Amino acid sequence: MKLARAIDRLNEAIAHAVGWALLAAVMICSGNALMRYTFSLSSNAWLEIQWYLFATMFMLAAAYTLKRDEHVRIDVITSRFSRRTQVWIDLLGFILFLLPIALLILYYGTPYALLSLQSGEMSPNAGGLIVWPAKLLVPLGFLLLVLQTLAEIIKRIAFLAGRIDDSSFTRTAHNPQEEIAAIKAANHID
């Protein structure tokens, strides 16, 4: 459980830091639109940085989404089963589907990103940015997802062994008002 908690803390810290990418993306998008429509000025670099920020949010927060149990589920079907059966379904899904796919993408995505880094790959668009930072997000994001999957497997096994209750891997809030309150509390927002 120490390893699972350490992975949880890592992905929480990364997700909170990546949250600032959303603010940056909104500001850049707004500034770019203002410049384009007011002064007829724009650049491919401003458009690409928006894409890079979106990719950063998506790739680096995917593991945090898994940790918070916010990924797409089939609750309509599994809600009919006992909690123990639901945990078994989660465990088998992690081991048979999520972990192998994430490892496969990590395996094939790493050389792809490293090649881009080594070549100093640039955008083919006029005035575009370097591409390799965005491509490095693929292996980094999937590495974080693999780690979080391992943490979730550890937690499910601990639950099945009777060592923990399911509060360490289920949603902390079940309605939108509670979700918003939990997010505000976690980010110290009034």
Describe the structure.
With 190 residues, the chain is an all-alpha fold. It has one domain. The longest helix has 38 residues.
Question: How big a fraction of the residues is strand?
Answer: under 5%
Order of helices and strands: HHHHHH
Mean pLDDT: 88
Sheet with the most strands, sense and barrel status: none
Helix content: over 70%
- The number of helical runs is 6
Main structural class: mainly alpha
N→C terminal distance: 33 Å
Unreliable runs, pLDDT <50, ≥5 residues? none
Taken together, the total number of domains comes to: 1
Radius of gyration: 20 Å
Shape: globular
Report the strand count: 0
Short description:
It is found in: Cell inner membrane. The chain has 190 residues and is mainly α.
Structural descriptors:
75% helix; 190 residues; 6 helices; 0% strand; mainly alpha
